Amino acid sequence: MDIIEEEKSYGHIGKTRHITISRRDTLINDFKNSTVQGLVSLLLSLGALFMVFFGIYRSYRMEGAGGYELGILMILALLFAVLSLLFGVLGLRNRKKIRHYMEKRGIVISIIVILGLIALFITGLGAFEALKG
Predict the structure, then answer these.
(1) What is the CA 67 to chain-centroid distance, rounded?
(2) Cα–Cα distance measured from residue 104 to residue 16, given in angstroms and rounded to the nearest whole number
(3) CB 37 within 8 A of CB 106
């Protein structure tokens, strides 16, 4: 009878328990579980997003007289976004990593920047046609 009671007392070992993880531990795990391409993708996409917002702000402050300076900034932001998208896709192809949080975030932000720049370009074409005609 003593042997059966000892076996019953160890029955809880196979069960899983819910472990709470703090936000800091989750961010550290995100950095550990992502690839270098994913981190580069996230940083490039955040840089592109910053450039777009800075270019829109400078255009507003210059009252639309930014010219080549802001055009080059937006083309550079588009280049950063495309490179970020490329690095994100390359990071997703790595099968050694289980989670691809940085890669996915970089891809989503770069797609938002690319679509925003396309919309800004189309809006600019419409404004140019309105002034011309």
Answers:
(1) 29
(2) 29
(3) no
Closest by Cα among 76, 80, 95 to 42: 80
* In contact, 121 and 55? CB cutoff 8 Å: no
The three-point CA angle 7-8-12 to 5° equals 105
Q: The tokens of 89 are what?
A: 């896709």
Kindly report the pTM of this predicted structure: 0.71
Measure Cα distances from 12 to 18, 22, 24, 81, 98 in Å.
14, 25, 30, 51, 28
1 burial (CB, 10 Å; 0-12 / 13-18 / 19+) is: exposed
How do residues 53-73 score in pLDDT, each as one tens digit? 999 899 889 887 878 888 899
